[in-house]
Amino acid sequence: MTITEETRFGLLRRRDFRLLWIGESISSLGSSVTGVALPLVAVTVLDTPPFAVGGLAAAAWLPWLLVGLPAGVWVDRLPRRPVMLAADCVSMAAFLSVPIAAALGRLTIGQLIVVALVAGTAKVFFATAYRAYLPFLVDGSDLLEANAKLQGSEQVANLAGPGLAGLLAQFFSAVGSLVADAASFAVSAICLARIERREAHTPKPRRRLRTEIRDGILLGARDPLLRGNTLYGCAANLALTGYTSLTVLFLVDGVGIGAGETGLLIAATGLGGIVGAMVARPMAARFGSARAVLLGKAGLAPAGLMIPLADRGAGLTLFVLGGVLIVAGVVAGNVVFSGFIQTYVPGELMGRVTSSVQLVNFGAMPLGGVLAGALAEAFTVRTALWVMLIGFALSGLILLASPLRRLRDLPPGRLDTRPVTHVGSPHSLN
Q1: pLDDT level of residue 156 (50, 70, 90 thresholds)
Q2: Domains of the chain, residue spans
Q3: In CATH, what number does 209-430 get?
Q4: CB of 391 within 8 A of CB of 238?
Q5: Residue 422: which of 230, 221, 231 has the closest Cα?
Q6: Has this prediction a pTM greater than 0.85?
């Protein structure tokens, strides 16, 4: 194996990581297919009204609010790989129930909502355990590369999934396309089961659930680096969800282009995610990891202000360029900061910190869609986009107000949690 091949393939040469990467990549593709296929089943098979279709989308995110915090505690109490295996099996069974019920003539919108809730709950456990499991499988020095490869394949899946869902629905029916998602979870489970490295899990004394949840929340809230990134994520997700909820309406009604061209333009902006995953490591090496996070999340955010200026013809370039830059910046910043969190937060608290951060970040997303819709109703879609994207650009100020602005690199080593209720951290600059 030459140096060039070593550089090109990196962690993919290691069997255990390769299995995790393959399973997670295929599972991400299946989940991306489901994001289109499940509403298609509701609309084309059950003739579901719009309000119920919206409820179906909300059901997929609701588990983060309902079980996100206790899931973090349970993940910290248990070996992470078996939790991920169980989540894959539950998701597979949930999605397989749809074609079975359809074949029996018993499929209802109620079942689809239950499937979305069950699969969403399984995803909460899988995503929380997955972020805590990666530092066990990969050395700290390789976490940046690991996150870049995993998020890169996830972005490819997000880009390809909607188109694949359409093809599967066309050739096999919308219900049949859900079999592909069930199969993707089966592949993920098989890959996880074949990983050779096993966790040495020692059961710890259990305290009250509320106390353990509080420890995770306090750690994330009182450390200035974690707190700043969480608050940024909340504000940025609110604004970006509002922006994406209006994208199709803006391009079709506001700009006046067709559905096919709209799909191509939105897919083109998704390329930013792939670019962001590819440039994250070079950015961190050249500018420093802390500066790479700031450049990606705060520095490129104002590029989104090109989007409301888009118009027909050459003006559509503004939409694509603005979309590519903000997506690339967010993904690059997330790759770098994810690797930092996995080396910074103690392993025994990783699940609880992850779940508390995700609760804040994902909890803001429904509000963003509602706010953007209200603004579009009261004014115009273009005005609502201006408000959302100005808000996104300003969200970077939260990071600039954190210790990140005074750092070149994110601090190495673990966060000292003795006691958990301390204020600040040994690495903070307060």
Answers
A1: confident
A2: 1-197, 209-430
A3: 1.20.1250.20
A4: yes
A5: 221
A6: no
